[in-house]
Specification:
InterPro entries: AMP-bd_C, AMP-bd_C_sf, AMP-binding_CS, AMP-dep_synth/lig_dom, ANL_N_sf, ATP-dep_AMP-bd_enzyme, DHB_AMP_lig. Its EC number is 2.7.7.58. This is (2,3-dihydroxybenzoyl)adenylate synthase. Keywords: Ligase, Nucleotidyltransferase, Transferase. The chain is an alpha/beta fold. The protein has 3 domains: about 30-180, Rossmann fold (3-Layer(aba) Sandwich); about 260-430, Rossmann fold (3-Layer(aba) Sandwich), CATH 3.40.50.12780; about 440-550, 2-Layer Sandwich (GMP Synthetase, Chain A, domain 3), CATH 3.30.300.30. It is built from 19 helices and 25 strands. The strands form 6 sheets. A 9-stranded mixed sheet has the order 2-1-11-10-12-13-14-15-16, sandwiched between helices. A 5-stranded parallel sheet has the order 4-3-5-6-7, with helices on both faces. Strand 1 and strand 2 form a beta hairpin. The longest helix is centred in the first third of the chain and has 17 residues, at about 55-70. The protein is globular. It binds ligand J2J.
């Protein structure tokens, strides 16, 4: 057994998923083993000037797996990984799977606070970072991690500074002979990151069985094959880019993943032209930038057949422009790292593709749309989205209290999304009830930022809310009530100037995308009947202030 504890599916559900062929009892390393056998010379990854064949991806991940096994890493261990969009991301991912070490892939934008929070929860034996990230540019952060995580045995850095262990050296190491064994398919393969709505970021255990199913089903729906050339221009570890169908879907089908450092259009267009990219996955804000950049550059995009858009609400007006202005079909994807993924299908009528976020990928996905009392609402009416199914998790890692809040007794997970479901089962996302800001697809848990602001000596109360943004969809606004005393009112205001607050938050080590875009000083925060901050009212107050300013 892997030894990583997680909430399992009830036995009857597990049996059903096995009997239906959703869960194959195979580890995800099977993806690579099959390609290696059938398609060894196929290009798995294009990364800058490098091309990695399936055989090389397999060989390199095996070599690294051996090197790690030699250093004592073993099944049941966990790892914290933070790499940019480079081939090593996928090499490391498979290497860890091959020895049953379950990684969490932090976003490259994450900083000290996020990585430390993940490390505290996971207690990893291994940390892998990149020297191009400020946290791993010297040994200071690694030293603090060692202090936080007593069992941390190895920190490996790609492009290591002097004194640190170079990941590339282990990738070259020859001579491992041990038999490699992934964790059993029904056990935790790795952890996904939750977008979060609470003070501490949560981890989502994903098993081989459940994740491999979501990958196969996604690849089928998106009709991937060996001719697929997929542009990965969002963080490679994000659920969308890993599994919907993402890189794993592409590997499963024997196609090529073309890695891009960011969705910035000109760089992406050049990669598309150079590699004959057939498919890309973007968040809506990136599509807007592509639409702006496309006039006069359409020829560069000629090979693209499908653009997937997901992660945040995609305005219908923008969606309608995609085929005409980018010259490819559109697929809307509404997914979550916790599980459930919805797709519009490639043969859906146009209106459905423009106006809905698709329907669940699996016939075994169970979806309920309910009112605040938990009663099912009729089709077409707005309600809270609950779901359970063969690839939707049953509990955050070591978070029993939070789990008690978001799962009902039947194992349905409350997604926090507000949707409408049509008679045909297609979902339209209309809002959310979770306390989260979706900043162009990047999720910010309001409570996490509020807690940081509350540590500031001059802050009495803090609340983070969303405000509309023309490109990002939403941006964040921190509403602050100052702590009186300690100087004149002018002193207090001076200490709480936005640049100073941002500097303060940066010093706390939080990711840049979580820094509030706006700050508003208020005398009081509106409260609900039970005395909590009334965010609906607060959003209205902030919107009023925005309008007054405009
Ligand atoms: C509106 N809101 C959306 C959409 C996600 C595929 C695609 C996206 C994600 C993802 C993913 C949305 N329209 N099309 O994991 O596999 C919001 C919802 C949802 C939350 C999940 C995948 N697509 N959202 O975005 O875990 O609020 O996953 O609950 O990052 O993003 O965020 P995340």
């Amino acid at each position: 057994m892997s030894g990583i504890d997680f909430t399992r599916w009830p036995e009857d559900a597990a049996r059903r998923y096995r009997e239906a062929g959703c869960w194959l009892g195979l580890p995800m390393t099977d993806i690579l083993a099959r390609q290696c056998r059938d398609n060894g010379d196929g290009i798995a990854i294009a990364c800058g000037e490098r091309q990695v064949t399936y055989r090389e991806l397999d060989a390199r991940s095996t070599r690294l797996a051996h090197a790690l096994a030699l250093r004592g890493l073993a099944r049941g261990d966990t790892a914290l990984v933070q790499l940019p969009n480079v081939a090593e991301f996928h090499i490391v991912f498979f290497a860890l799977l091959k020895i049953g070490v379950a990684p969490v892939n932090a976003l490259f934008s994450h900083q000290r606070l996020e990585l430390t929070a993940y490390a505290r929860q996971l207690q990893p034996r291994l940390v892998i970072g990149a020297g191009v990230h400020p946290l791993f540019a010297d040994g200071a952060f690694a030293a603090t991690l060692h202090a936080e995580v007593p069992g941390l045995a190895h920190v490996l850095v790609l492009g290591a500074p002097a004194g640190a262990t170079e990941l590339a050296d282990l990738l070259m190491e020859e001579g491992g002979t041990a038999v490699l064994a992934p964790s059993p398919a029904s056990e935790v393969a790795f952890f996904q990151l939750s977008g979060g709505s609470t003070g501490t970021p949560k981890l989502i255990p994903r098993t081989h069985d459940d994740y491999y199913y979501s990958v196969r089903r996604s690849a089928e729906i998106c009709r991937l094959d060996t001719t697929t050339r997929f542009l990965c221009a969002l963080p490679a570890g994000h659920n969308f880019l890993l599994s919907s169908p993402g890189a794993l879907g592409v590997f499963h089908a024997g196609g090529t993943v073309v890695l891009a450092p960011s969705p910035e259009p000109l760089g992406c267009f050049a990669l598309i032209e150079r590699h004959g990219v057939t498919m890309a996955a973007l968040v809506p804000s990136a599509v807007a930038l592509w639409l702006q950049a496309a006039p006069g550059r359409r020829a560069q995009l000629a090979s693209v057949r499908l653009l997937q858009v997901g992660g945040a609400s995609f305005a219908e007006a923008l969606a309608r422009r995609v085929p005409e202005e980018l010259g490819c079909a559109l697929q809307q994807v509404f997914g979550m790292a916790e599980g459930l993924v919805n797709y519009t299908r490639l043969d859906d009528p146009e209106d459905k593709v423009y106006t809905t976020q698709g329907r669940p990928m699996s016939p075994f996905d169970e979806v309920r749309v309910v009112d605040l009392d938990g009663q099912d609402v009729p089709d077409g009416a707005e309600g809270l989205l609950l779901t359970r199914g063969p690839y939707t998790f049953r509990g955050y890692y070591r978070a029993p209290e939070h789990n008690a809040q978001v799962f009902d007794t039947e194992g349905y997970y409350a997604t926090g999304d507000l949707v409408r479901r049509g008679v045909d089962g297609y979902l339209t996302v209309v809002g959310r009830v979770k306390d989260q800001i979706n900043r162009g697809g990047e999720k910010i848990a309001a409570e996490e930022v509020e807690n940081l602001l509350l540590r500031h000596p001059r802050v009495l109360q803090a609340a983070l809310v969303s405000v509309p943004h023309p490109l990002l969809g939403e941006m964040s606004c921190a509403c602050i009530v100052a702590r009186p005393g300690g100087g004149t009112a002018a002193d207090v205001t001076d200490a709480l100037r936005p640049p100073l607050l941002r500097k303060y938050l940066r010093e706390q080590g939080v990711a840049e995308f979580k820094l509030p875009d706006r700050f508003r000083m208020l005398d009081t925060l509106p409260l609900t009947a039970v005395g909590k901050t009334d965010k609906v009212a607060l959003r209205a107050v902030v919107a009023g202030l925005e309008t007054n300013q405009a």
